[in-house]
Amino acid sequence: MEKMKRSTRLLFLTPYGLLFFVFIVVPVVLAIALSFTDFNAVQFPRFAGLRNYVNLFTQDEVFLQHVLPNTIVFAALVGPGGYCLAFLLAWLLSQLTRGPRTVLALLIYSPSMTSGVAMTVVWRVIFLGNQSGILNYLLMQLGIITEPVVWLNNPDTLLWITIGVALWSNMGVGFLAMLAGLLNVSPEMYEAAAIDGVRNRFQEIFYVTIPSMKHQMLFGAVMSLCGAFQTGNIGTMLAGSNPTPQYAAQMMLNHIEDYGYIRYEMGYAAAVSVVLLGMIWGLSKLAKRLFSDHD
Amino acid sequence: MIYRERKHNCIGRWLCILFFVIACLFSGFCTATAQVHAAGQSEAAAIVEKRLAAGESADVTVNVPAGAEYTLWVEFCYDETETEDARFALYIDGVLPLEEAASLSLCGAWIQPNAIQTDRYGNEITPLSSRSTEMLYAPVQDAAGRRAMPFTFSLTEGEHSILMQCLEGSVWIQDIRLCIPETPPEDQCAEATGDALVVIEAEHPLLRNDAAINASAEFSAALSPNDPKKRRINFLTGLDTPGQAVSYMANVPEDGWYQITIHCRQKSKVGLPVLLSLRVDGMLSSQGALALKVPYMREFGRTALQSGDRPYTVYLTKGEHLLSFSINGEHLAGAEQGIKHVIDGINGLVLEVTQFTSGSNGDLYRDYRIAQNIPDAADRLSDWAVYLEAQVEQLVKQFGNGAQEECAYLLTAASQLRSLAKEPEKLPLRLTELNGSSSSVLFLLSEQLTQFNRHGLDVDWIAVHQTGASLPAEPSFLERTGFSFNHFIASMSAQDYEAGQGKSEALQVWMGRPRPYVETLQVLIDSEFTPTTGIQVDLSIMSDPNKLVLSTAAGNGPDAVLSMQYVLPSYLNIRGALLDLTQFEDFGCVAERFPLGLFVPYTLEDGVYALPETVNTYVLFYRKDLLQALHLEVPDTMQEVRGMIPVLRQNGMNFYYPTAGMGGVKWFSGTMPLIWQHGGSIYGDTVDKTALAEEEALSGFVELTELFTIGAAMVDMPSPGFYQAFRTGTVPVGVSDISTYIMLREAAPEIDNLWGIALFPGVEDENGVVQRHTSGGAETMAIMSSTERPEEAWIFLKWWSSAEVQAEFAKRLQLTYGSTYLWPTANTEAFDTLPITAADKRIFSEQIVWSVDAPWVPGTYMLERELSNAFLSVVTQGTDARRALDMAIKAIDRETERKLEEFGYMKDGQTVKELKTPTQDVVQKLVEQAAEEENE
Questions:
Q1: Mind giving me the DSSP string for B660-683?
Q2: Of A237, B5, B475, B936, which has the maximum CB count within 10 A?
Q3: For residues B787-804, b (16+ Cβ closer than 10 Å) or e, as one string?
Q4: Burial environment of residue B691 by CB neighbours within 10 A (0 to 12, 13 to 18, 19 or more)
Q5: CB A233 within 8 A of CB A243
Q6: Would the CB atoms of B876 and A147 count as touching at under 8 Å?
């Protein structure tokens, strides 16, 4: 009986296990293997030891000066920022009645669904660098600027615009889970808390809402952090090229693409992606420590 | 099925029909009226018998028997090589009889072979048409084809001189005749009783007057013929602009009244019907035949042609009749004229207003006293609104409320004009609403013109029938589902032109272009190349160039590659993936087919690894009308450009330089021209140190950045910004490439004849010669080093790059898919045969001579990138040009060193082997060397 159960369990695990192995384990192992080689995509890879990693942290100025700081600033603002925004929005929406809540939830979620095409069309028109760009037009009408600002080709502005757009498009991801979590908190808890002496809404959120939706909070945190690190195309799409002008909005992902498909240094690109993998893994561990129950 | 029958008939019978057709042609094929070419019909005639080429004219005298209204008919023919209709101006007694007479055209005819060819995969391919060289007899008509009836003009009795001055093209004129205009009879009410039926497959027209009308294929159960597995040519498409015409031969079984039903799709005009004129044997059977309605139909369906509210009927005798359908755009001509009139007015008003604002966007806190300075501004604006709405009203009266839908752009423009008219004082602030690049009044009106011109009719079959006949049935739901299912299943198996279908005996060639190109070339190969050389070639579509790199790594790459982007060979050859072409002994004479500057990026050390295929050169575009209004000359040098920008800016306009259309990385084609023109280059003799620090390169870079920092040219204008702004006139002059040229030529009807091109504005050197170097690289072809058949691949490349084949390919593309499919071949000799206006072609050819591309060696991508970064930091952040360039040079040299080490030219910072910079001189030397070896 016990034995039967075990084999059945394995049988049921097989499809997932197979898919996981083929599409996750094999590529990751291959990437790690490739990261120790020189591979130019045409000739056979040559073993290079740790040279790629050494070069990455000692010689790659673009990586150290632009890519790493950009990614960290971006992830720090878009990850927690998007997370807080998602929670705030979800909490605000949970205060509404059902009808408007559904409509608004859909509206707020839509940017995450319509990323690519809509984004470039809408945002590039807003930030167009001549006087017919919407932002330039408004600012010129208000007399704040006299000459159009080239927003998307200007290294000073591109990163911030990228962060803004990323916040707009990323907040929807954790938002639905949090909304579900918020709506799951039973009203009795609030009543009990009121009797126990909770005096305002802020205390209610802090002592009742957040503790009772830890799982959704964890999900949201991991999703938004991973999302922040993996988002690479926003900057390049806004600027219209990879690399972005003066690497102003160059993220890890763009750096990988740059080395992999523009310079054909696949081994090096693999090393960068292994580092990215490590960073995401570490951060999701951290998020788990912060939000999961320790029981 | 008259067409089908004829296919089986013997040649003699076919000749008879042809003879008959020619006879019918004489009666005027393209939107010809009912003047049958019978003796006595022409009132006065004059023999010309002369070939008119551009610039030449024919002057004849005719004796008019009586004062009356006349139409002018011409008997003419084209050479097979003349693929463009001739345009000419007509003067009677030294004056233009009508405004439109300044640009008239003689519409030639196109024929296509009767049998449809299939490609190697069993799919039918769009048949290739050719120019009919028969003598044609047709009335002169305006070049835009806006009139359904020929021009008429009144002449008094006595002698008149007629002067035809050819503007473009070349045509043989036999004679000129004056005829009394046709007056078709009133509509007759007759029932087409009976059960006679003739069905003609529309994809086999006997004649067409435009190569853009072509047979096409779609997988649909509704079309006939159809096949869920293979492409079947089954409908006629490309009937789009007024004046286009197709003719069919119908074999009518018995005398009687007939109706005409067509199985078609009309997706362009929602609110208005598309109007067809039908001429039977060259004549209008009734006045109603001039405007037969085809309503909006999203999917293929049957529609009985209606004249007015009744089905159109025509009396036909037993036997063959020539049915000529043409698109009639006359009902829109009034509105079009109105729009053009308003556009002119707006352009004038904008210039007046910008005089007071000095070209700025307007100051919110300043009173421009528009009421005093342009007292009638408000009236003009509201008059235009009223005028435009009146045009729509007229269409509504004629066709019902649907017309408003068709004129949506126009109505929005009118309401915008009204809103502007309400507060004329705000006009300087709201000027962009008049002429901005999007959603402005000018933009909306241009869009409306484009929309008016779009008739988009696809026809499957045409039935000439009586009411009792049973027409081909529409497929049932089950049949449709079955068809879709079969098609879906068929799509699972191997697709044609798919790369990597396993090695076969044939030469594997990949082509980085969409299907129409690949299909056309495969047919050309199968019919011309394989029979003469015995070499089989399998062509495949290469949808993603990365596939080439990956498949080479996997060892199943092709033998040769066509149409890959021009920098790709450098990435491949440095890794040993491409074959050095100089090893072939006749390389020298093959290379001489192209401008040698194009070879620079494919050259490494002593090898040349690719041949140029297409060229993309940059020229200056300018608006004749606007430059004239501003009293500006067409600039010839950058100095002159810098001089004209302030004037443009004062009038709210600007200059466009191609860097503005590029994204975050400004490619060499944007950043390098000025550096070359100043005599600079990116590398010295060897590539280990960049030469950007040299004085010449620096002065080029400074001039480039000053164009934007001091000259204040437009910095950012993503594509298709220039095309739009050029049309609305906010950027009346700019530098752009061949694709812009095609877009403006094909899709900017409102500025036809109002713009021109000139050479790239260059830099004058110390000898007073203007240097105009530009980049010219577009696509290339190469042989992979992994090939087992280098000799055969080389024979193929030689064949493909030859002038005859390039010219033939360009011609076939254009004949099959219309004039938008321009093939900008890099072969200098073949370029001369392209269907571009002679004057424009001269500009392009001259500019191509100046083509030179940057060398691509290890690390050059970093140079391009850093040069772009330096440019942007000067232009957007105000960094000093020299400092920005210094920063860039450091990064470039470091990357070059790293890359040279990777490829073994350097070791530990020491040069092991020098890498010479490929230049045009190096290419020249290699080519000469190859030529010498061949001679030995």
A1: GGS-SS--HHHHHHHHHHTT--SB
A2: A237
A3: bebbebbbbbbbbbbbbe
A4: middle
A5: no
A6: no
Phi-psi region of B483 (alpha: psi -120 to 50; beta: other; left: phi over 0): alpha
Q: What is the tens place of the pLDDT at every residue in B193-218?
A: 888 999 999 998 998 888 888 888 88
Element (H, E) at B744: helix B738-747
- A185 falls in which pLDDT band (50, 70, 90)? confident
Longest CA pairwise span in chain B (Å) = 97
Enter the tokens of residue B365.
């806190």
Report CA-CA distances (Å) from B822 to B109, B565, B806.
20, 18, 12
Using the beta-carbon criterion (under 8 Å), do B877 and A155 form an inter-chain contact?
yes
pLDDT digits (tens, 9 = 90+) for B13-52: 554 444 444 444 444 343 333 333 332 367 778 888 888 8
Q: Quick check: helix, strand or coil at residue B762?
A: strand
Contact B683, B855 (CB under 8 A): yes
A262–B875: do the CB atoms touch at under 8 Å?
A: no
Q: What is the dihedral of CA B594, B599, B600, B603, to 10 degrees?
A: -150
With tokens 């001259």, the residue in question is B846
Question: Strand B655-656 relative to strand B733-737: parallel, antiparallel, unpaired?
Answer: parallel
CA distance B282 to A49: 83
- SS3 assignment for B800-836: HHCHHHHHHHHHHHHHHHCCCCCCCECCHHHHCCCCC
Query: Can you tell me the distance from the alpha carbon of B724 to that of B435, in angstroms, rounded to the nearest whole number?
Result: 11
Q: Is the pLDDT of residue B6 over 50?
A: no
Q: Give the span between the Cα atoms of B456 and A61, in whole angstroms.
A: 56
Residue B34, both tokens = 């009912």
Alpha helices (H) along B186-307:
none
Choose the closest CB to B716 out of A42, A146, A150: A150
Quick one: DSSP state of residue B310?
E
Q: How many residues does chain B have?
A: 936
For residues A268 and A44, give the distance between their C-alpha atoms in angstroms, rounded to a whole number: 15
Residue B876 phi, psi dihedral angles, 5° rounding = -95, -30
- A153 vs B552: CB contact, 8 Å cut-off? no
Interatomic CA distance for residues B603 and B606, integer angstroms: 7
Tell me what ipTM this predicted complex has. 0.83
Chain B residues within 8 A of A124 when measuring between CB atoms: 718
In sign, the C-alpha dihedral spanning B825, B831, B837, B841 is positive
Instruction: Say how far apart CA A87 and CA A90 lie, in whole Å.
Output: 5
Encoding tokens for residue B854?
């940057």
The residue whose two tokens read 């290890």 is B858
How far is it, in rounded angstroms, from Cα B515 to Cα B496? 10
Structure tokens at A262: 């523009």
The H-or-E segment that residue B547 falls in is: helix B545-554
Going from the C-alpha of A84 to that of each of A77, A114, A293, B3, the distances in angstroms are 10, 21, 20, 72
* Beta carbons within 10 angstroms of residue B107's beta carbon: 26
Contact B865 A140 (CB under 8 A): no
Taking CB atoms and an 8 Å limit, are B664 and A130 in contact across chains? no
**Mean pLDDT of the residues in chain B:** 86
Nearest to A234 by CA among A217, A251, A212: A251
Q: Which span out of A124-138, B178-192, B307-321 was modeled with the highest average pLDDT? A: B307-321
Instruction: Of B869, B677, B836, B703, give the one whose Cα is nearest residue B763.
Output: B677
Which of the 8 DSSP states describes residue A66? I
Residue in B closest to A127 by C-alpha: B716
Q: For A244, which of B432, B664, B716 is closest by C-beta distance? A: B664
